[in-house]
Amino acid sequence: MGDFRRILVIELLGGIGDLLMVLPAVHALGRRYVGARVTVLTEEPGAELLRTDPWVAEVSTSTDVRGELARVDPDLVVSTSMHSGIPGLVAAHGCRAVTDLWRNPPADQRIPVRYLEILRAEGLIGETDPTPRVHLTADELERGRQVVGDVKRPVVLVRDSGMAVKRWPYFDELAEVVPVLELPAMSLRELGACFAAVASVGGVVVGGDTGPVRLAEAMGARVVGLFGPTTVERYGYGDGNLQGLPECPHRRPLAITEQPCWWSARCPLAEDGPACMAAISVRDVLGRLSGGGAGRASV
């Protein structure tokens, strides 16, 4: 392994979940190169989650990748982002670089694990935990406990998934039969603190493949993940996931944006929304809430 002093991690895929999936790699680099200054180039609102991270010296939200390379002058660059000529800009800088963490992915390996595997193969890190962890202040965590209060084993529903194709249609029905904790609008850091409090009282967070649910996982909460167009094998959380319509012939685990439903949420198998999400029943979710492991739901 080399002795790097200035490490730049570029994560410009745009999603909160994308940033959280590379976070174990960021932490692995910080732990391996203790004297190095680690800078993460990413986007808001996810950037706010790193601002008290002990392994991250600086968070930049600049849109000028070339300028950031010149300013930081890294001797190691790790990037998840292939767009906008980023690999070429990194290559021109001339330092050690890993600019394609998406290369040759197995269909049955979770993305954070794949990132770490590639960095190990490059000789940059050793064995490490693939679970993301977000670091908040003690004051923030206390405020989260105050918001959640004394309720025991609450269920928090993350109804939105960022894209219509990932939305589960039965949240209202589920809310009628479980003790739902409704959280007010808040920042990501405040939400993370509430998720930590939910975890501390035995609560569960239910939601699809989306950044806020990945944040709940990073705060130690038990998660029931609802997956349709994306797969549990690649994108799942822990072991409490449900995969809707696993036999769908249109699903492409390694090319999700090329699926006919991805951008429009128009499903080739159903007229009223994604059949894969509708295939996950309230009963399926109740089974996970009562302690069942990962499962598959079909029509």
Automatic annotation (TrEMBL):
The entry's keywords: Glycosyltransferase, Membrane, Transferase, Transmembrane, Transmembrane helix
Keyword hit for Magnesium: no
A GO cellular-component term linked to this record: cytosol
GO biological process, one term: lipopolysaccharide core region biosynthetic process
Record carries keyword Lipoprotein: no
GO MF annotations in UniProt: ADP-heptose-lipopolysaccharide heptosyltransferase activity
InterPro entries linked to this entry: Glyco_trans_9 (IPR002201), LPS_LOS_Heptosyltrfase (IPR051199)
Chain ranges passing through the membrane: 7-29
Stated name of the protein: ADP-heptose:LPS heptosyltransferase
Species this chain originates from: Kutzneria kofuensis
Classification lineage: Bacteria, Bacillati, Actinomycetota, Actinomycetes, Pseudonocardiales
